[in-house]
TrEMBL record:
This is NitT/TauT family transport system ATP-binding protein. Coiled coil: none annotated. It comes from the Bacteria. Belongs to the ABC transporter superfamily. Residues 24-257 form the ABC transporter domain. Residues 1-22 are annotated as: Disordered. Keywords: ATP-binding, Nucleotide-binding, Transport. InterPro entries: AAA+_ATPase, ABC_transporter-like_ATP-bd, ABC_transporter-like_CS, ABC_transporter_ATP-bind, P-loop_NTPase. GO terms for molecular function: ATP binding.
Amino acid sequence: MQVEGVERNASGRQGSSPAGQPVISVEDLSLTFNTGDGPVYALSKVDLTVDEGDFVSFIGPSGCGKTTLLRVIADLERQTSGSIRVNGLSPEQARLGRQYGYVFQAPALYPWRTIERNVMLPLEVMGFSAAERKERAARNLELVNLKGFEKKFPWQLSGGMQQRASIARALSFDPKLMLMDEPFGALDEIVRDKLNDQLLHLWRTTRKTVVFVTHSIPEAVYLSTRIVVMSPRPGRIIDIIDCNFPRDRTLDIRETPEFLAVAHRVRDGLRAGHSYDD
Ligand SMILES: Nc1ncnc2c1ncn2[C@@H]1O[C@H](COP(=O)(O)OP(=O)(O)OP(=O)(O)O)[C@@H](O)[C@H]1O
């Protein structure tokens, strides 16, 4: 999904859209949950810009606010202070305008619907014709390597295949932005490697902008153009690391000194963010 007039900068990253507008822009954003046990400072003074074509990962220990930040972008939570724009719109406008696809930690497929009909669900809600629904479901299931599984039910598929179906569902209405909350966290390492490769291929061919939550350093370094390292109590960004690996990388790069150097910097950031009483 190359936008006309968009140039690549020296680091190989796409710049902003022709209008000069980032896909996501977060400024001085904080979010406090008021709970029976007192306030929880989930996010504190977060500043972040995501440009068109970026693959940005949020990494950090449990409770550092990764999911909360993703949910603020998706208008599933509201910030306490600060501002956020998604394609120049408020998160609510972006949600109502179906500007993003969201992939949850668990596949969340309806067990009584076939895979094809799960993928078609958002298209039904949005009023696409039956022919268009069928064509889009087929196209997106092929994109995630699930051609031939259209008539199966979720329980007939492995966990990795179910997660791929949920990615096809999020892609079905062709949003330019994908928000993915640790989609492969529950899968074993071999399946995860394979899905990482498929996701990278998908990102490369569709030119989507991706925001991705993970706990895994290798996953973050392998997939991302930028890694946002976060730390808890209060949840905040402590480092943003550029990864300039070629778009058509393969898993072999994980053995290279460049890859290990980035992984090392992420690990250092995660360590620095932990206080000694954690
Ligand atoms: N609805 C809520 N009400 C109260 N506290 C919440 C709520 N949602 C999240 N929190 C708290 O906010 C903090 C950030 O949570 P969040 O789920 O964003 O962290 P996370 O980094 O995604 O963690 P994990 O990696 O375990 O998913 C945590 O302390 C969490 O307990």
